[in-house]
From TrEMBL:
<dbReference type="InterPro" id="IPR029479">
    <property type="entry name" value="Nitroreductase"/>
</dbReference>
<dbReference type="InterPro" id="IPR000415">
    <property type="entry name" value="Nitroreductase-like"/>
</dbReference>
<keyword id="KW-0560">Oxidoreductase</keyword>
<dbReference type="GO" id="GO:0016491">
    <property type="term" value="F:oxidoreductase activity"/>
</dbReference>
<protein>
    <submittedName>
        <fullName>Nitroreductase-like protein</fullName>
    </submittedName>
</protein>
<feature type="domain" description="Nitroreductase">
    <location>
        <begin position="243"/>
        <end position="330"/>
    </location>
</feature>
<comment type="similarity">
    <text>Belongs to the nitroreductase family.</text>
</comment>
<feature type="domain" description="Nitroreductase">
    <location>
        <begin position="186"/>
        <end position="239"/>
    </location>
</feature>
<dbReference type="Pfam" id="PF00881">
    <property type="entry name" value="Nitroreductase"/>
</dbReference>
Length: 352
C-alpha cells in the first residue's frame, strides 16, 4: 500500500492533525531560512528545488545572447535595445554633444551584420534612420568617427517616411473618451464558455498588431504568441494549466504568451519577459474585445511537470518561459461570468 493510499483511509481528525503538523514544520523552516540572503539561497538549494528551472533558464538565456553576439547575423534584442537608447539620447533635454560612445561601435556592427543578410525589415529601416540622425547630431571623437566610417558603408538612402523621434504634437487626436474606455474595460471579462465557432487567423493577426504597440523595456519585445487555433489543439494546450478543469474542451483557440530570456545578457533583467509579456497580453485582450472576441487569461504557475509538458508541445527552448495562456473565442451568450469584485482606487493608491 502506498503512502497516499494509507493517508486516504485515515480518519479526518487524524488527517487534520498531520496536515497541521506538516504546515507548521514548513512554516518554521521558512521562518528560519528567511533570516538572510545566504540562508534563503541555502533553502532553495537543499530544501526546495522550485527555482531550478528559472535558474537554469536564465543561465541558458545568457549563453544564447552571447552566441548571437558572436555569430555573424542580426542580434534582434541587442539592436533594438541600443537603437532605442540612441533615440532617448536624441530627445534628451539638453542633448549632449557626444553620447553612446561605449556602445555605438557594437551597435553599428550589429546593424551591418543585419544589412549584409540582404533582407530589409522595419527594424533595419528604423535602425538606419536613427543611426543617420545620431551621426548628424554628435560631435567627433575617435570612437564615434570609427563607427561613423563603418556605418557609411552600410547606410541606406533616406526613406520619405523616416522612423525617427518626433514631437508629441504629431500624435493623432484621441477619439476615445474616458467613459468609452471604461465600457471596453467592463466588457473585458474572463470568459470560459464559448460558441462552437472558429476564430479567423486574420482577426488574430489584427489583434496582435495592436498588441505590438504595448510598451516594452528598451523596445526589445522579448516575447512571441504561440497560437493553437484548433479546438482539439487548444484543449490539449489548455490542459497543461492547472486551472482549466471542466472547461478546457470548450476553448476554440488558445494562445501561449512566451518570453525569451535569450534577449538579455544579465540575470538582473530576468523578470522583464513577464512584465513586457503581460503588458502586451493585456493590450491583446482589449484588442480582441474590440473585434467581438472574448478572452480568458489562464494562470501559469511555475510547476516543473507542466513546464515540461507545454515546452514539449510547443517545441520551446529551455530559455523560453511561458508567461500565461489566453483563451480566445466568441462568447456563449448564456455562459456565466464570475462577478469578481475589484478593489477600489482608495484600496490601491498610496500617496507619498
Amino acid at each position: 500500500m502506498s503512502l497516499k493510499s494509507l493517508v486516504r483511509i485515515l480518519p479526518e481528525p487524524v488527517k487534520d492533525v498531520l496536515k497541521a503538523a506538516r504546515d507548521n514544520t514548513r512554516l518554521g523552516m521558512v521562518r528560519m531560512f528567511s533570516s538572510n540572503g545566504f540562508m534563503a539561497s541555502l533553502y532553495y538549494c537543499l530544501i526546495s528545488r522550485e527555482f531550478d528551472r528559472e535558474h537554469r533558464a536564465v543561465l541558458l538565456g545568457r549563453l544564447q545572447f552571447a552566441r548571437l553576439m558572436q555569430s555573424k547575423g542580426e542580434n534582434d534584442a541587442f539592436l533594438r535595445r541600443n537603437v532605442h537608447r540612441l533615440e532617448k539620447g536624441l530627445i534628451m533635454r539638453p542633448r549632449r554633444s557626444t553620447f553612446a560612445e561605449d556602445y555605438i561601435g557594437p551597435t553599428v556592427r550589429c546593424f551591418a551584420d543585419a544589412t549584409h543578410a540582404g533582407v530589409v525589415t522595419g527594424q533595419q529601416r528604423w535602425a538606419n534612420d536613427v543611426l543617420t540622425d545620431y551621426f548628424s547630431a554628435v560631435q567627433s571623437t575617435p570612437r564615434i568617427d570609427s563607427a561613423r566610417r563603418e556605418f557609411s558603408g552600410t547606410q541606406r538612402a533616406d526613406d520619405p517616411n523616416r522612423c525617427v523621434p518626433y514631437p508629441h504634437s504629431d500624435l493623432p487626436e484621441c477619439p476615445v473618451s474616458y467613459e468609452q474606455l471604461m465600457v471596453l474595460f467592463r466588457r473585458r471579462r474572463s470568459v470560459r464558455w464559448y460558441q462552437d465557432k472558429p476564430v479567423s487567423n486574420e482577426l488574430i493577426e489584427q489583434a496582435v498588431r495592436a498588441a505590438t504597440l504595448a510598451p516594452s523595456a528598451c523596445n526589445r519585445q522579448p516575447f512571441r504568441f504561440y497560437v493553437s487555433n484548433d479546438a482539439a489543439k487548444a484543449a490539449d494546450i489548455a490542459q497543461c494549466a492547472g486551472g482549466t478543469g471542466g472547461f478546457h474542451d470548450n476553448l476554440p483557440c488558445v494562445i501561449a504568451v512566451v518570453g525569451d530570456l535569450g534577449a538579455y545578457p544579465e540575470a538582473r533583467d530576468r523578470h522583464v519577459i513577464y512584465i513586457d509579456g503581460s503588458l502586451a497580453a493585456m493590450q491583446l485582450m482589449l484588442a480582441f474585445e474590440s473585434l467581438g472576441l472574448s478572452t480568458c487569461p489562464i494562470n501559469w504557475p511555475d510547476i516543473e511537470e507542466a513546464e515540461r509538458r507545454l515546452a514539449k508541445k510547443l517545441e520551446l527552448a529551455y530559455h523560453e518561459r511561458t508567461v500565461m495562456l489566453l483563451a480566445v473565442g466568441y462568447a456563449d451568450p448564456t455562459g456565466g461570468i464570475p462577478f469578481s469584485d475589484k478593489k477600489t482606487e482608495q484600496d490601491l493608491i498610496v500617496f507619498k
